[in-house]
Specification:
The protein has 204 residues and is an alpha+beta fold. The chain has 8 helices and 7 strands, in the order βαααββαααβαβαββ. Strands 1-2-3-4-5-7-6 form a 7-stranded mixed beta sheet. It starts with 7 loop residues before the first strand and ends with a strand.
Length: 204
C-alpha cells in the first residue's frame, strides 16, 4: 500500500513548543542525546523537551526555515545558505535552558557543539539540516523523506548543496536515498558516540 502524503507546513514562532515536543520524542533513542542526557537522568523527558524547544525557539527567532509534517508527526530545523551558525546573542539567550537541559553535563554539551561547529564546512554556501525527526510512533512512514524534499527541491532548483550531521547510524540510508554521502565518521570528543558528516551536491 502506498504511504499517504502528509501536509508539510512552515513553522511559526508560535510552534516552538510543538517543534520541541516532536523532536524530543524523535530523539529519545539517539546515541548522542543519550550520551548528553542519559536515560537514567531524572526528568529526562522534560530535559529533552527543554533542549529541543530552546533550539527551535532560536531557529525561529533568527528566521531559519523550520517545518512540521502533518499535525506534528515530524519536524525539521533548517538553515538557509550562509546562516548555519547561531549568533552568540542566541547562545546567551538560551544559556539558562541549556543548563536546565544538560545539568552537570552542560560543559560536555558545549564542547560537543564546538567540535561539530569547528568541522562544519565554510564554503561553498549550502543548506544545513540541523535537526530532523519523526515521533516514535510515526517513524518508518516516510515523514522524514517528505521533510527533506521540502528543502532539497529548492536546493536543486537553485543549484545549491546541502550538509548535515547524523548522530544515528540507522538514519544514514534515509539520507543516502536523498543524495547525501558520508564524508567523515568520527567520535564525539574522541570517546563518545559516532557522528557521520554528510554532504549533498545538487541533483540534476
Amino acid at each position: 500500500m502506498q504511504k499517504a502524503q502528509l501536509t508539510v507546513r512552515a513553522a511559526t514562532r508560535d510552534d516552538a513548543d510543538l517543534l520541541g515536543d516532536v523532536l524530543a520524542d524523535a530523539f529519545t533513542n539517539d546515541p548522542v542525546i543519550g550520551w548528553l542526557i542519559p536515560e537514567d537522568r531524572r526528568h529526562r523527558d522534560r530535559r529533552m523537551r527543554t533542549f529541543f524547544t530552546s533550539m527551535s525557539r532560536s531557529y525561529l527567532r533568527t528566521g531559519k526555515p523550520c517545518y512540521i509534517a502533518g499535525d506534528g508527526s515530524a519536524a525539521a530545523l533548517w538553515s538557509a545558505p550562509g546562516t548555519w551558525a547561531l549568533p552568540a546573542t542566541e547562545m546567551a539567550l538560551e544559556a539558562g535552558p541549556m543548563t536546565a537541559a544538560f545539568g552537570r553535563r552542560v560543559q560536555r554539551a558545549l564542547r560537543t557543539q564546538l567540535q561539530i561547529e569547528g568541522l562544519h564546512p565554510k564554503q561553498p554556501d549550502h543548506w544545513y539540516l540541523g535537526y530532523l525527526g519523526a515521533r516514535q510512533d510515526c517513524q518508518g512512514q516516510g515523514c522524514g523523506g517528505q521533510l527533506l524534499r521540502e528543502v532539497l527541491a529548492t536546493a536543486d532548483a537553485d543549484r545549491i548543496p546541502a550538509y548535515l550531521e547524523s548522530s544515528n547510524e540507522r538514519n544514514l540510508t534515509l539520507y543516502e536515498r536523498h543524495g547525501f554521502t558520508v564524508v567523515e565518521e568520527l567520535r564525539v570528543l574522541g570517546k563518545g558516540p559516532k557522528i557521520w558528516r554528510m554532504w549533498r551536491d545538487p541533483a540534476g
